[in-house]
């Protein structure tokens, strides 16, 4: 009998402090019912890196019934305390330090972190992405240590190149990182930051790299409703299904076909359907 595909939930940009409570309650129930092998959260757990936001994020993550790995997002770096930002930028993750940038090994697949959020950089907008040489080397070394035949899901916060969304990544070193990842057994690069889902293939000088972005579970929606990615790995193929709080299909939720505003129209005062009535999306786009 063939083994069941490995199920992974890819979440991003929950932004505790401005979270969508209906969305996170729905996702928590889905995790309890579906029991994914792993939950990968690609950054921006908080809105302003406040202690109370990290406390809420920690309680929620600790309540999930699945192994979790968390990337650091630009919103998770201290905003108002520059001394802390420069010298102890991850101190506020103290309640979940064991899951931050944690490698997860699954059957034939591993989640490997690649840090793109930095404490400072030589440009005014520190919210944008930067893959430093040290971070890339650490990621590549982790991939090279994987058992033969194991594919990597590389978890980042910022997309490694622009993907056509309203939000921008402007990731320095992203092109170099993609070219290096193309030399290795990488199933996909998982990211967040832009608050809209996408599934695209980037051609590099060393071959193609698949890039998969998750939407947001916050109130800070852009073109599409709150969502997360449901990934299934059968040992050869990674399938992506965007799960969302409306009746939009995966194809419509992903950026290559996303409408200008895919949020369903709602009249003032119209009640929102309970999360337990949210239908699944259409079959995944391959």
Tell me about this structure:
The chain is α/β, with parallel strands linked by helices. The protein has one domain (6-277): 4-Layer Sandwich (Purple Acid Phosphatase, chain A, domain 2). The protein has six helices and eleven strands. It has helices at residues 21-34, 51-62, 82-87, 133-144, 174-181, 250-253, and strands spanning 6-11, 38-41, 68-70, 104-106, 109-113, 151-155, 186-191, 198-204, 207-213, 227-233, 238-244. It has a six-stranded mixed β-sheet with strand order 4-5-6-7-9-8. Helix 5 links the parallel strand 6 and strand 7.
Name its key features.
alpha/beta, disordered C terminus, 286 residues, single chain, Purple Acid Phosphatase, chain A, domain 2
In sequence order, what are the helices and strands, one letter per element? EHEHEHEEHEHEEEEEH
| Rg (CA only) | 18 Å
Report the average pLDDT across residues. 88
Number of helices: 6
CATH architecture: 4-Layer Sandwich
Total beta strand runs: 11
Helicity range: 10-25%
